[in-house]
Amino acid sequence: MTKASQIIAINLLGLLLTACGIPDLATKKAEVPLPETYQATPQKPANAADLPWNQLFEDPNLASLIDLAIANNKEVNIALQRISRAENEIQSRKGAYLPFVSLGAGADGEKVGKDTRNGAVEDNLPIRRGEKFPTFLGNFRFGLFSTWEIDIWKKLRNAAEVARLEYLASIEGRRFLVTNIVAEVAHGYYELLALDNQLENLEQNIQIQQNGLEIVKLLQVYARSNALAVRRYEAEVAKNQSRRYEIQQQITVVENRINFLLGRPPQPIARASGSLMNHKPKILDAGFPSELLRNRPDIRQAELELSAASLNIDVARAEFYPSFGIKAGVGFEAFALKYLINTPESLAAMVAGEMIAPLVNRNSIMAEFKNANAKQIQAAYEYEQRILNAYVEVSNQLANIDNLDKSYTLKQQQVDALTQSIDVANQLFKSARTDYLDVLLTQRDALEARRELIETRQKQFGATVELYRTLGGGWRDGVNPQTLAGVKNTGTEP
């Protein structure tokens, strides 16, 4: 072995030994044990998350709004551009471990002093027979040049795989955004229906109280009532008429919020207000908790981000190792243009290999390596957190649906009793067997009970929407008949 070879071997061994001094930092493996079934929920194989949103929401007005929101929502369109950027990053990373080939050309010239060493040589150096060395020496060249980093440690290929995982995570991020957009539009729509029913209920109550006011005025003429009763009725009517404008303002706010989700300026929202109280919410099957890992886009996004973070550790570790590269070029070079394409005299070629490794200042690389390790641990905790959060959300909505159903049944009984009591109170008042205050209080209680009944129905539909969202439904489109077992239509309200 020659002395030069020995020096190269010693330097290479030193670089490798330096790279071997990388600390082995601890990483975290994500583990979240999920129960086999949800608490107090029968075990069923069907899962409503597999149901496309246009099959769950059968109201054509709501379906049209959701379809428009998915197409025009600004956040969704912004997410599409993030996906495009992530896809471009894949191409960039893949191109990094392929040879870079470029076409180049250049020209320069110089004149050296005769009293310099180069000048003395050039003054007595003929170029060709009968030709003197030119006073102004040019240098013209063009050709192909190539550089290639040999990816021995898979640093570049792992970086490309990280970009691919991040691209897939961005797709899941958009799906999660679509899931939330679908739920928000549905929530707004049902809130709008509830406000319409509240307004209708208020108008009916105002009409009843105005009729009662006329009766009280008539009874006052016959001295069977007094001015106090008339004024109390008038005050009650005025209060409810004022409440009408509050509800109308709430309707305007909700309409504008829906229009914002749809990416369009404020305009009226087409809706079927009577469908809220005339139909029951659908019953959704929750399936098994383990299916959340498949159906929830945010969980799949966190899983992909965890995989990318784990692979980034290998990318950061490879920065400690020496990198190997090859440079090559072929082209023409001459001191005058007339000789530039002469072959083989002007033909030039170059090939070189290089090895570079960090030796002294490794603090920056070490910091990046530690950051990659910390990011992996962070991603593992975030993955676990999203799984736990998803399970808790589903469990809460399952309990919420059950309790709201029981509450609605009792409130319906309350409304029926108070509605009948209004007629009884009016008859008793006309026959002077009760005071006008009993009539007013009965009407007020009936209005409040009916308002709470409408709110409970809205909450029932809202809980169904939330369960669908928390199960991971909403990002699929199209209709798959095999998934219809995941939802039951309870029909119209009797």
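That was protein one. Protein two is written in the same sequence-then-structure order:
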Amino acid sequence: MTILSFDIEEWFHLLDHPSTRTEADWAKFPARIHENVDRILDMLARQNQSATFFCLGWVARKYPEIIRQIADAGYEIATHSDVHQLAYQQTRPQFKEDLIRSIQSLENITGKKIRAYRAPGFSLMEANKWVFEELIAQGIEIDCSIFPAARAHGGFANFGEQEPCWVEVNGLRIKEFPINVANIAGMPLVFSGGGYFRLFPDAVLKALWDRQSYVMTYFHPRDFDGGQPMIEDLSLIRKFKSYYGLSKAMGKLERLMEGRQFIDLSSAEKQVQWDLARVVRL
């Protein structure tokens, strides 16, 4: 199964950077989310593909028409937190408040239960695995936040699973659809979205995707926006990671879609034999 998902946030929602951290900082940048979401929806209609949209509560309140547009087109809505902060930088009460606000903001627009969550930056780790308890308490049934390797923004180095499974914490279970990593030159790298997707050539991506029976993608509106402004105070390496390949990314994704059917998270959930799925106890 190949799951197509988009994290609906603005182009300036870069994590772990001083000038893009708070809502006050965000007010200094021009909005580009309308045209960028339109680009994604036009592509999906053209390719006749389904997808799940992990949306910020902040977007729902500031631009409710965007959430309505996505929902009215028949796509599944999930939460990507409220104000796009790294989960491990939040206290448990802060995380809970952020989660509840995001769910309420999205459900008030769609009228449908929010069942799935993805943490900004896949920012879950051993130290904040209590996040799963909070997700379950708020009615979240599916998580898509696990990075099955160590990384700068969290990760679980010993997770050992790159397919749908159960995550169990203190006797509570939640369905998990982890991100994919590939071992390239001895490093675990994400190939199914974000910066590395834009970096790798088509042939490498196709080879990596073809060898997987399960692929969880993650894209952002900014990944396809070659005209977005440069955030000047980024380091050189961060500028490269954030801006390389933007103008070519949509064509690259569409070429990968040739002969390949993408599905949304709900469809993927139905394909899994959950009574036989592995249980990962954290």
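The chain has one domain: 2-281. Keep this in mind for the problem set.
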